[in-house]
């Protein structure tokens, strides 16, 4: 599987920078800036420890990326795409009768995408 060290480090540095900048620009709202700074440091520490643990395990195992992993990712992406497209159609139908905010719909789509992708990968790893 791919390492996501760069994305985790980038996210943690952005959170830390946003926390410090928010604290410097708006000193009246200190709590949200401090929470953002703490979240960034926690993500940074977690990403470094995960990277070090994975590098130790990969030295012992040295597993190659095989066809089974590609099949699992392809099937998971296919099912997630079908479910997301059907969810979009349902939301489009509901928007004719109910007023839906754009933020709520996008949040629902993103959550559904993440959850479906994780669940389908877990399911296909068990089945195949």
Question: What percent of residues adopt helix (DSSP H or I)?
Answer: over 70%
**Major β-sheet, in short?**
none
**SS-based class:** mainly alpha
Which of globular, elongated, flat, extended, rod-shaped describes the shape? flat
Give the gist of this structure.
With about 130 residues, the protein is mainly alpha-helical. Helix content is about 85%, strand content about 0%. The longest helix is centred in the middle third of the chain and has 32 residues, at about 30-60.
Overview of the structural elements:
The chain is mostly helical and 128 residues long. 84% of the residues lie in helices and 0% in strands. The chain has 4 helices and no strands. The chain has helices at 5-25, 30-61, 67-94, 102-127. The two termini are 17 Å apart.
SSE topology sketch:
Elements: H1 5-25, H2 30-61, H3 67-94, H4 102-127
Offer a few descriptive terms.
mainly alpha
């Amino acid at each position: 599987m791919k390492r996501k060290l760069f994305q985790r480090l980038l996210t943690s540095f952005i959170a830390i920078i946003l926390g410090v900048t928010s604290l410097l620009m708006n000193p009246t709202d200190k709590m949200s800036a401090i929470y953002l700074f703490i979240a960034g440091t926690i993500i940074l520490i977690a990403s470094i420890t995960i990277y070090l643990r994975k590098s130790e395990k990969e030295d012992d195992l040295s597993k190659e990326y095989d066809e089974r992993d590609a099949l699992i990712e392809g099937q998971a992406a296919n099912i997630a795409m079908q479910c997301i497209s059907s969810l979009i159609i349902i939301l489009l139908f509901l928007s004719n009768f109910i007023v839906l905010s754009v933020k709520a719909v996008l949040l629902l789509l993103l959550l559904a995408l993440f959850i479906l992708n994780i669940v389908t990968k877990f399911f296909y790893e068990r089945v195949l």
